[in-house]
Amino acid sequence: MKRRAIQQLTLLVATAIALIGVTTPASASERYPEVNATTAWLTAYPTPGLAAACTSRRVTLPSGPYEWDARYTAIPAWDFRIENFRRITLGAGTYTWTDCLKPSYGVYIHTSTLNPDNPAWQTATVDRIFEMFLWTDSGQMMYGSMLTAVSS
Predict the structure, then answer these.
(1) Which residues does residue 37 pair with via DSSP β-bridges, in sequence order?
(2) What angle do CA 70, 71, 76 make, to 5 degrees?
(3) Which helix (H) or strand (E) holds 96?
């Protein structure tokens, strides 16, 4: 009885090792989204005279389709929401990725851009209205966008 249990355990471990060996792990871009984000103190009721809040980073991406989403997180509550900008297909290359919140009349205009190093490609831009007062009072807010690789 003990010998049979050992044989079954050995077979189970060998099968697990074989499965792990033949499984191809997904690339990092398929498993984890790329994020461009920062924190800033934002007023719940902005006006056009206030300064814009921006953040930029360089990112190298493989070609393919991506979900491009906005992300907002109230601090310290850590409540967050993700809003879809759009699906985009990008060429493999390096981009300058910028997210800005521009104060307007009681709202922020969130603009996200992907500016490719390749001069033959156009800059991709999306805009959306972010109404902070509907969600939280004035305070620290993390904002930005995410790119998540998706299947074609």
Answers:
(1) 144
(2) 160
(3) strand 93-103
Going by C-alpha positions, the residue among 29, 124, 38, 144 that lies closest to residue 81 is: 144
pLDDT digits (tens, 9 = 90+) for 88-124: 999 999 999 999 999 999 889 999 999 999 999 999 9
Given a contact cutoff of 8 angstroms between Cβ atoms, the answer to whether 98 and 54 are in contact is: yes
Q: Rounded distance, CA 16 to CA 2, Å?
A: 21
The percent of the chain in helix, strand and coil, each rounded to the nearest 5, is 20, 50, 30
Task: Point out the residues of the chain with pLDDT beneath 70.
Answer: 1-31, 76-81, 132-136
Taking phi over 0 as left and psi of -120 to 50 as alpha, with beta for the rest, 117 belongs to alpha
Residue spans of the domains in the chain: they are 27-149
Whole-structure pTM value: 0.74
Residue 128: is it exposed, middle or buried by C-beta count within 10 angstroms (0-12/13-18/19+)? Answer: middle
Q: Partners of 116 in the beta sheet?
A: 95
Structure confidence at residue 97 (pLDDT): 97
